[in-house]
Amino acid sequence: MFEPVLLKNIDVLDGHLLSTYESGGGYQALAKALRESTPDEVVELVKQSNLRGRGGAGFPTGMKWSFVPKRAGKPKYLCCNADEGEPGTFKDRIIMERDPHQLIEGMAISGYAIGAETAYVYIRGEYVAAIRRLEQAIAEAHAKGYLGKRILGSDFNFIVHIHCGAGAYICGEETAMLDSLEGKRAQPRLKPPFPAVEGLYASPTVINNVETLVCVPHIVARGPHWFRGIGPDKSPGPKLYCLSGQVRKPGLYELPMGIPLRELVEEHAGGPLPGRRIKAVIPGGVSAPVIPERGLDVGMDFDSLAAVGSMLGSAGVIVVDDLTCMVKVTTRIIEFFHHESCGKCTPCREGLNWAVKVLRRIEAGEGAPGDLEQLEMLCKGIFGNTFCALGDGAAMGLRAALKHFRDEFVAHIEERSCPFH
Questions:
Q1: 263 & 360 share domain
Q2: What is the rounded CA–CA span in Å between residue 31 and residue 27?
Q3: How far is CA 334 from CA 225, 241, 359, 374, 378, in A?
Q4: Residue 99 is part of which domain span?
Q5: For the chain, N or C: smaller number of CB within 10 Å?
Q6: How large is the greatest C-alpha to C-alpha distance in the chain, in angstroms?
Q7: What is the residue-level pLDDT of the chain in tens, covering all 421 positions?
Q8: Do residues 218 and 366 share a domain?
Q9: pTM to 2 decimals?
């Protein structure tokens, strides 16, 4: 039976307190890293573990760290992306509310590895409870010498600041987040230069999300071979899955990377509601293309989902049952992306606006022949033609809905009404 690692303190009384975290071995990994390893050795340790970023892109974390110049002549920064704006995703919030010291320790070790003395947690402003818990945890860590000057008697200095966002989905994109931190309007930057070379304040910057950073202390404490022993070799480690939608037991689950999607939904989440059948599952937040019920035997890892035309994304698993209209679901998703587009790129700004108008017309029973072809044309114009992945996510999601549930779109147009309502 799989024993939770990242969520082991989630249901512990006062799990957010430093005393509770220390009693379970907290900050021993930081002490071990400072005492036994050089920064380069910590980077190599993470490389050997093959930890891939848990924010959605799945880029190897140790490799990202190694891109930071050794002698940049500028300060280096670590940024924790805790914006978590992807619908269906709530894993980072739970960690920050109930086990914030795990994140702080992960950030401290990561800062040591890349040579950063200053870090920022960019957190969405709606996460009021998480912000308060993080503020308390940072104060406790400072008082015990886990943050600040000469941490645990070493030469390493490290401080963490909290920066609250204002609920903009685009700030989940790393370069838009950096612009927001600098006080600018949040819009994606053209890359290169990449943040590891020229990021926050034009200085070398590493950006990782919460779940990625909390894996680091466990890799240092238990070793890379332990981490690689969980799940598939190309995407190893424990993974947090957010289950929501029309399912009996929604919630946050920690299981091995690569678990079959069907097992996750039907066994761990209890399957569909009484009298219902699963129609489809969105596996990684609304940016991930939907998978029909017949495709649920796919593994929940980066490579397996990519092979079937979807993606792991944030692992926000949203279950859709047989009484739900996929035209309505698709319309709401594209409306979300249209609303959250920063407007910088013409294909995204204009293409999503046009797609929303067509989808609303179809949903209202006013669709016309040629509408589906028009939507496919819009997807082609958006995909691959924008600064960031927001437009790509919207286009992929719309394409998948048209591919797997085209009969529902056709029924709306031909019957001039929704067959589900």
A1: no
A2: 6
A3: 42, 23, 9, 15, 12
A4: 18-228
A5: N
A6: 74
A7: 789 999 999 999 899 999 999 999 999 999 999 999 999 999 999 999 999 999 888 899 999 999 999 888 899 999 999 999 999 999 999 999 999 999 999 999 999 999 999 999 999 999 999 999 999 999 999 999 999 999 999 999 999 999 999 989 999 999 999 999 999 999 999 889 999 999 999 999 999 999 999 999 999 999 999 999 999 999 999 999 999 999 999 999 999 999 999 999 999 999 999 999 999 999 999 999 999 999 999 999 999 999 999 999 999 999 999 999 999 999 999 999 999 999 999 999 999 999 999 999 999 999 999 999 999 999 999 999 999 999 999 999 999 999 999 999 999 999 999 988 7
A8: no
A9: 0.95
Rounded to the nearest 10 degrees, how much is the dihedral formed by the CA atoms of 139, 143, 149, 151?
Answer: -110
CA distance 165 to 181: 9
Q: Dig out the tokens for 283 from the structure.
A: 């596996």
Here the tokens at position 192 are: 């290169």
Instruction: State the CATH number of the domain containing residue 160.
Output: 3.40.50.11540
Alpha carbon distance 373, 340 (integer Å): 25
Residue 313 tokens read as 């994304």
- For tokens 């050795």, name the residue: 41
* CATH code of the domain covering residue 382: 1.20.1440.230
**Crossing angle of helices 346-363/326-340, nearest 10°?**
150
Do both 366 and 286 map to the same domain?
no
- Other Cβ atoms less than 10 A from the Cβ of 19: the count is 11
Provide the pairing of β-strand 205-209 with 77-82. parallel
Q: Torsion angle, CA of 351/54/176/347, rounded to 10 degrees?
A: -10
> Residue ranges of the alpha helices (H) in 248-370?
261-263, 302-307, 326-340, 346-363
148 conformational bin, left if phi > 0, alpha if psi -120 to 50, beta if neither: left
Query: 123 pairs with which residues across the strands?
Result: 82, 164
Q: Check residue 71 and report its DSSP letter.
A: S
Which secondary structure element, helix H or strand E, spans residue 79, and what is its range?
strand 77-82
Say how far apart CA 323 and CA 320 lie, in whole Å.
Answer: 8
